[in-house]
């Protein structure tokens, strides 16, 4: 038993550890890496694992459960309300129209019953939250218009799983309307239970656990919530993922939100990886070999229909062309919920098993197309589009290279750019948000559209002749990557980087960035100086104290960073942030930085005078 | 009454005794505008047009500061460099300060005796102020004798209230419409001027 487990763990983890870095190195993203790892170890290629791939998939579905719990946690009702038009308009239309088209297709061409066609249509209209969110985050696209629109659509799809799962029993003619009602009642009851439990049982329970003050107990508590909700839903014959999602939403407003997030995050990452491997392994290649025409036609048709509808809707909601392209491509696959829905349809006997197998293969195949399509979009389609714009720009300012390149033009970068411009220094700007790019071009900035970490883009932006590279990107991983590229290929550049917080600063220091500017530092000291003045301090003394503190804090962080290098910690949690603050506070107490301006303290600054007096 | 602009330049005013005593004695006078440079410009980023506007609204200018290393505190030099512009305060068309009175109110740790050819500091206090005096002349201002408290280490609190009263009377007299500049200049300091006026009044 233990041997079997160790063997399986060895196979899975080895495959992941080899395939994922290779896939990322090739620019394919980790999701495709996991899928390939699954295919490689699956029955179709090496056959390290056989039928148990299915069992692993059931186990790994728990990763999806956790992901939905985390998504639920991030839904802030006020934020949600602000996005309602995009979520219900864009998302709702996408779901209904896609389900209608695909359902009709299945009904007419493959002779599905109308119930089965509707169920399958709804299942296939979903996109994969796991793949999309991972891809968008890895490419730092989640803050762009495309990313936010994609998130809205996914949110609605995730929520729509509730009514869809409730609807299926009604569609299953054999089970009769009565049990359909029963199922629906059960669903509503279960959702109600989760909501009430979240409010009145889970939150007090978490408080109790936190009071014990044991770290591992908190992790266990968080896991218990997710597992208990999932089990409850399973008992009712409903989707555990759904229960977790609702539990997440209920707990989003509690004080434990961040704690829960950091506790669940590592488990989620690991299990999601496992889930993708299992999907890869469970692709039934012999089935595909038997009916390649049917399956490949279905894959192509599903992708095409979904993409067309997304494209049209993107247009309708006025997403700019290139963003719309990203939006369309990222959402074109079928999501993990389709597995759940098809499995449910199988138990309800809405669809014959043979078709269920085919559909599972179709879903898995569409999922594996996304990273490839994304790669093609990013490398072939968007650059062509971007380069066309650059070419236009180049024609009117040939041979102009600016001394400063600013990567990332969010609030931080734009402030830097505005200040430099006010002092007659023009900067070249790199941004991967086409809305920023359009605006900036209108304002006469020299802008390059695209991923700033790419060598060709840096080259065309004139990095080999510039003097300063300002990294103003939100995402710390991208900043580090960019600083590394700059150091390797453009030694002429002085890299100046923004850091969101101390941890970002540490990461940048590890990449040998010399000039690091922590966003929080200057503003918080300015506030504190004003606070001292309001409390009656002289403004000049308070200002000097503030400047001294900034210098002291820079040195303290530098020192801590060296200390940290010995420990090499990579996973950063809220807990570590607290530990860091503790260390800083202890050091503060040791170094008493009261002012040493004694020369000014009496009405005489002449030291020699004092000695003679 | 003329209006007095009292420019205070003290980097550590919260620890000061002499300057605090002097300022407390005069800050409630209706014709005095107290202008605290270190409080207003902790980053030395002086607002030139605002300063020039203030100068045009006053007829008498007082620089009040402690002496460090034989000079006024750094911000006063910064102020002079930035505000007394060519073409505004001096040079062609620079007549905005013409005829305004300039008086320095100075505190030193060293005693009066230590300032002079026989003293530790070799020169008289006025001699250390030559650059300021010439600046006043360049800007067509009237340079007045200084008001001073010297040997601040040795003073007891009641001394400060004495100096405070003297300072208050000095500002009052200066602000009166009719003053005789040549008479004032016959005295080595404003302290002496006020003392002698009072002695005559008592006679």
Task: Tell me what the structure shows.
- The complex is a heterodimer of chains A (613) and B (203).
- Chain A has 3 domains: 53-383, Na+/H+ antiporter like fold, CATH 1.20.1530.20; 397-499, 3-Layer(aba) Sandwich (Rossmann fold), CATH 3.40.50; 527-595, no CATH class.
- With 613 residues, chain A is mostly helical.
- In chain A, helix 8 packs parallel to helix 15 (321-330) and helix 22 (502-510) packs across helix 24.
- The longest helix of chain A is centred in the middle third of the chain and has 44 residues, at 353-396.
- Chain A has a 6-stranded parallel sheet with strand order 3-2-1-4-5-6, with helices on both faces.
- Chain A has 26 helices and 6 strands.
- Chain B has helices at 18-26, 37-40, 48-56, 74-83, 125-128, 130-138, 157-175, 181-185, 190-202; strands at 4-8, 32-36, 60-66, 101-108, 142-143, 147-150.
- Chain B has 203 residues and is an alpha/beta fold.
- The model of chain B has no long low-confidence stretch (mean pLDDT 93).
- In chain B, strand 1 (4-8), helix 1 and strand 2 (32-36) form a beta-alpha-beta unit.
- Chain B has one domain: Rossmann fold (3-Layer(aba) Sandwich).
- In chain B, helix 1 crosses helix 7 and helix 7 crosses helix 9.
- In chain B, strands 1, 2, 3, 4, 5 and 6 form a 6-stranded parallel sheet that branches.
- Chain A binds chain B through residues 537-544, 597, 599-606, 608-610, 612-613, and chain B through 10-19, 38-40, 42-43, 66-70, 73, 107-111, 114, 120-121, 149, 151-154.
């Amino acid at each position: 038993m233990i041997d079997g487990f160790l063997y399986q763990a060895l196979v899975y983890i080895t495959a992941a550890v080899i395939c994922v870095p290779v896939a990322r190195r090739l620019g394919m993203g980790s999701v495709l890496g996991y899928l390939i790892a699954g295919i490689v170890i699956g029955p179709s290629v090496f056959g390290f694992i056989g039928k148990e791939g299915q069992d692993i998939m059931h186990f790994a579905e728990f990763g999806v459960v956790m992901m939905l719990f985390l998504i639920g946690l991030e839904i802030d009702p006020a934020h949600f309300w602000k996005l309602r038009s995009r979520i219900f308009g864009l998302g709702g239309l996408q779901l209904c129209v896609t389900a209608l088209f695909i359902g009709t297709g299945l009904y007419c061409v493959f002779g599905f019953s109308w119930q089965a066609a509707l169920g399958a249509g709804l299942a296939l209209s979903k996109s994969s939250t796991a793949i999309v969110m991972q891809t968008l985050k890895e490419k730092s696209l989640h803050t762009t218009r495309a990313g936010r629109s994609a998130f809205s659509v996914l949110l609605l799809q995730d929520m729509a799983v509730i009514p869809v799962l409730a609807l299926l029993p009604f569609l299953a003619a054999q089970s009769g309307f009565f049990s359909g009602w029963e199922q629906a009642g059960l669903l509503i009851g279960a959702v109600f239970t989760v909501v009430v439990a979240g409010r009145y049982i889970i939150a007090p329970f978490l408080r109790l656990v936190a009071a014990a003050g044991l770290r591992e107990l908190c992790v266990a508590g968080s896991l218990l919530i997710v597992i208990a909700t999932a089990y409850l839903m399973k008992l009712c014959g409903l989707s555990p993922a759904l229960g977790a999602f609702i539990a997440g939403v209920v707990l989003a407003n509690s004080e434990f939100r961040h704690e829960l997030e950091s506790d669940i995050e590592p488990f989620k990452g690991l299990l999601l990886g496992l889930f993708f491997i299992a999907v890869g392994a469970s692709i039934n290649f012999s089935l595909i070999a038997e009916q390649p025409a049917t399956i490949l036609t279905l894959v192509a048709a599903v992708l095409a229909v979904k993409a067309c509808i997304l494209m049209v809707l993107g247009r309708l909601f006025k997403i700019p062309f290139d963003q719309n392209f990203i939006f369309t491509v990222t959402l074109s696959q079928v999501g993990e919920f389709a597995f759940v829905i098809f499995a449910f349809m199988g138990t309800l006997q809405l669809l014959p098993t043979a078709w269920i197998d085919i559909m599972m293969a179709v879903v898995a195949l569409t999922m594996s197309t996304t990273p490839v399509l994304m790669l093609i979009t990013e490398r072939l389609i968007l650059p062509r589009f971007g380069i066309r714009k650059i070419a236009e720009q180049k024609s009117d300012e040939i041979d102009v290279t600016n001394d400063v390149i600013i990567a990332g033009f969010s609030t931080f970068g734009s402030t830097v750019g505005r200040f430099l411009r006010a002092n007659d220094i023009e900067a070249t700007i790199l941004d991967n948000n086409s809305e920023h790019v359009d605006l900036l071009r209108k304002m006469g900035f020299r802008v390059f559209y695209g991923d700033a970490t790419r060598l060709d883009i840096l080259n065309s932006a004139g990095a080999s002749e510039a003097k300063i590279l300002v990294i103003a990107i939100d995402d710390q991983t991208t900043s580090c990557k960019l600083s590394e590229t700059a150091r390797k290929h453009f030694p002429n550049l002085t890299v100046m980087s923004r850091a969101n917080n101390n941890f970002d600063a540490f990461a940048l220091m590890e990449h040998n960035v010399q000039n690091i500017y922590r966003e929080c530092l200057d503003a918080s000291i300015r506030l504190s100086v004003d606070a001292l003045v309001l409390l009656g301090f002289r403004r000049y003394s308070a200002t000097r104290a503030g400047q001294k503190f900034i210098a002291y804090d820079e040195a303290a962080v530098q020192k801590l960073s060296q200390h940290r290098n010995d420990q090499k910690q990579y996973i950063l949690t809220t807990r570590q942030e607290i530990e860091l603050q503790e260390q800083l506070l202890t050091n503060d107490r040791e170094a008493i930085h009261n002012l040493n301006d004694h020369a000014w303290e009496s009405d005489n600054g002449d030291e020699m005078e004092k000695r003679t007096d | 009454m003329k209006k007095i602009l009292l420019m205070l330049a003290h980097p550590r005013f919260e620890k000061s005794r002499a300057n605090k005593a002097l300022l407390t004695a005069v800050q409630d006078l209706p014709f005095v505008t107290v202008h605290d440079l270190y409080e207003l410009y902790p980053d030395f980023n002086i607002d030139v047009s605002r300063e020039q506007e203030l100068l045009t609204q006053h007829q008498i200018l007082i620089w009040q500061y402690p002496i460090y290393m034989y000079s006024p505190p750094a911000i006063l030099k910064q102020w002079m460099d930035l505000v007394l512009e060519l073409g505004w305060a001096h040079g062609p068309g620079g007549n905005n300060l013409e005829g305004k009175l300039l008086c320095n109110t100075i505190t030193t740790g060293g005693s009066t005796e230590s300032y002079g050819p026989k003293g530790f500091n070799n020169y008289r206090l006025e001699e250390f102020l030559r650059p300021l005096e010439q600046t006043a002349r360049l800007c067509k201002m009237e340079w007045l004798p200084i008001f001073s408290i010297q040997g601040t280490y040795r003073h007891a609190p009641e001394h400060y209230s004495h100096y405070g009263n003297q300072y208050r009377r000095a500002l009052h007299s200066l602000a009166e419409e009719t003053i005789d500049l040549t008479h004032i200049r016959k005295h080595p300091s404003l302290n002496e001027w006020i003392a002698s006026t009072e002695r005559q009044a008592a006679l």
